[in-house]
Amino acid sequence: MLRDGTFIELNQKTYPNCHLHRSNSNDVARTESVTFICTRQMDDAGPTNNWMAPADAKEKVRPLFDGAMKGRTMYVVPYILGPASSPYSKIGVEITDSAYVAASMRIMSRMGKAALDRLGSSDDFVPGLHSLGDLNPARRFIMHFPEEKLIWSVGSGYGGNALLGKKCFALRIASWMAREQGWMAEHMLILGLEDPSGKVTYMAAAFPSACGKTNLAMMVSALEKQGYRVWTVGDDIAWMHVGSDGMLRAINPEAGFFGVAPGTNAKTNPNVVEAAHRNTIFTNTAMTAAGEPWWEGMDGAPPAGIIDWKGNAWTPGKSPAAHPNSRYTVPASQSPSLSSHWEDPEGVPISAFIFGGRRARLAPLVYESHDWQHGVFVGATMASETTAAATGAVGVSRRDPMAMLPFCGYNMADYFGHWLAMGPKLKNPPRVFHVNWFRKDADGKFLWPGYGENVRVLKWMLDRIEGRAGATETPIGNVPSPSSLTLDGLSISRDTINELLKVDSADWSKEEQAIGKFFEKFGERLPPAICQEQKALASRLSRSAVATG
Ligand code: TSX
Ligand code: MN
After folding, report:
1. Does 388 have pLDDT greater than 90?
2. What is the pLDDT confidence band of residue 387, given thresholds at 50, 70 and 90?
3. DSSP alpha helices (H): ranges in 29-144?
4. What is the pLDDT of residues 263-321, one digit of tens each?
């Protein structure tokens, strides 16, 4: 890769075994418009997925593989998703003509001999066929055949389009398997919150993109002196089974972090900054004159002589030096925050689910759902407001149920049904919370400091689980009672806390209507329990409006 320019060697003194890869400039992100779920029945893919009949998909895409690998090296990449010894892990084999993909898969999964040893003579693996093709976006297709557990991807070498173990298998194909087999494949981080006694409580959280999922998973707690610490089990995907103890048990199917680089610094994610100094692949970041990776939002001022992500000399002020979707690919084992239980074969027991989004006005800092069914409704109605001016209007709210909109491998109405069905199978279903780190005041300033201070919100959840923290009922769920949030050492006014926890019934009535509109697209297939929850919310809101006049 160094010889043919696929990799550029970075400074081997300060970044040993680190390399920079520059992708084709038309191939810098997942491409949802050419990502298809190919089921016999269109309705099984549902209204939120692109659909193609399997036979049509194969007829269309098969010719794009003809001769595509000629003159290239073909890599056969066997990999395990999940700890090598876990009964819940699964095997995939990716065929690819990209050395970058093979090298990335080695970081992101348990690749090679471990997978072949586990596979033995079994044919129980998910095949994935990948070729860069000619990288022409017009001939780019990411095809999933969940009925035969097969993936075809052509025309892209980038991340989630090309590392087939990640979004294609661990989420889209796995979500289908999970419904068939009674488990869950979710777009969730997994963290453990250690309390002063040393007890660790595990939580899994789903946020849409640009909400800081990796940062939360790897958070350095602001309450460390008081004995509260956060341990990382995973930052992106959780596979969860009903354990023999009746708890929901989560494994991380991945072995690395493929995170967005811009904005990563000692304040936002000190653990990944430490981790990504060795054995790391950087993709589409900028590079300094000293041969170190660089991106917008890195600590300190930009040094002179930066080469941008396309390989050109960079002048500050015009376009960004690093591509906004530039990435680090780093082994999980290098994070100082990694949980000692991250490879437990049975997984870690999940006590809480956390949903969230970026809502400048609407959602309080945190609230708790009443019960499992209400919690599923809270997840199903998740939304986040857009930030990137490049993708259109800023502040437009987009629905993203359970952060699974681009990753659910089947009809999302059936997915809600599967969630509803999982609760009663659990002796101790996780409590379901919703958070919003992004509420703003009238001047547009963030009300909550976020980052390491978020541990205070996690601690409130833990105290709720343990029956120690008070809550105030609102029409959307329970918010912290005035004294139940631990705020010592934080200078934040009582007024600000009240504003952070406020629930405005008029605003939420509008939201309830928007939710109804969103649900319409699922038609008759939407589970009745979801409609029931919506009606219950509407009636709680109207009662509260009457009560407050
Ligand atoms: O990741 C974030 N988290 C979670 C951290 C564990 N971000 C970054 C989001 C983009 C990926 C946040 N941004 C968080 C947050 O909790 N909160 C905010 C908003 C915010 C930004 C800057 C400040 C405060 C809040 N600055 C100061 O308080 C000085
Ligand atoms: Mn993700």
Report:
1. no
2. confident
3. 42-45, 54-65, 99-108, 113-119
4. 999 999 999 999 999 999 999 999 999 999 999 999 999 999 999 999 999 999 989 99
- pTM of the entire predicted model: 0.98
Q: How many Cβ atoms are within 10 Å of 396's Cβ, its own excluded?
A: 11
Residue 351 CB-half CA count within 13 A: 17
Mean pLDDT of the region 437-466 = 98
* Tokens coding 348: 């870690």
For residue 152, the SS3 value is strand
Mind spelling out the 3-state secondary structure of 322-344?
CCCCCEEEEEHHHCCCECCCCCC
Reduce the DSSP state of residue 432 to 3 states and report it.
strand
State pLDDT tens for residues 95-126. 999 999 999 999 999 999 999 999 999 999 99
Measured between alpha carbons, how far is 355 from 350 in angstroms, rounded to an integer? Answer: 14
Question: Is 207 a pocket residue for ligand 1 (Cβ < 6 Å)?
Answer: no
Local structure of residue 313 (DSSP, 8 states): B
Closest CA to 459 of 180, 193, 67, 114: 193
SS3 content of the chain, % helix, strand, coil (to 5): 30, 25, 45
What is the model's pLDDT at position 389?
A: 60
146 alpha carbon to ligand 1 midpoint, in Å? 37
Q: DSSP string of 214-270?
A: HHHHTPPPTTGGGT-EEEEEESS-EEEEE-TTSSEEEE---SEEEEE-TT-STTT-H
- In the numeric block, the tokens 């000293």 are attached to 290
- Ligand 1 site, residue 210, Cβ cutoff 6 A: yes
The best mutation among 203, 437, 447 to test binding of ligand 1, ranked by most ligand atoms within 8 Å of the C-beta, falls on: 437
Task: Name the closest-CA residue to atom 7, ligand 1.
Answer: 212
Residue 218 above 70 pLDDT?
yes
Dihedral Cα 431, 436, 442, 448, nearest 10 deg: 100
Terminal Cα distance for the chain, rounded = 69
- In whole angstroms, give the CA distance from residue 329 to residue 253: 15
Expressed in angstroms and rounded, the spacing between residue 384 Cα and the centre of ligand 1 is 15
344 by Cβ neighbours in 10 Å (0-12 / 13-18 / 19+) ranks as middle
Place of tokens 């979004």: 167
446 pocket-lining for ligand 1 (C-beta < 6 Å): yes
pLDDT band (50, 70, 90) for residue 393: confident
pLDDT at 392 over 80: no
Which is nearest to 168 in space by CA: 153, 158, 154, 184? Answer: 153
Please report where in the chains the tokens 């309080």 appear, as a residue. Answer: 364
Cβ burial of 216 (10 Å; 0-12, 13-18, 19+) is: buried
Ligand 1 midpoint to CA 452 (Å): 9
Residue 450 Cβ < 6 Å to ligand 1: yes
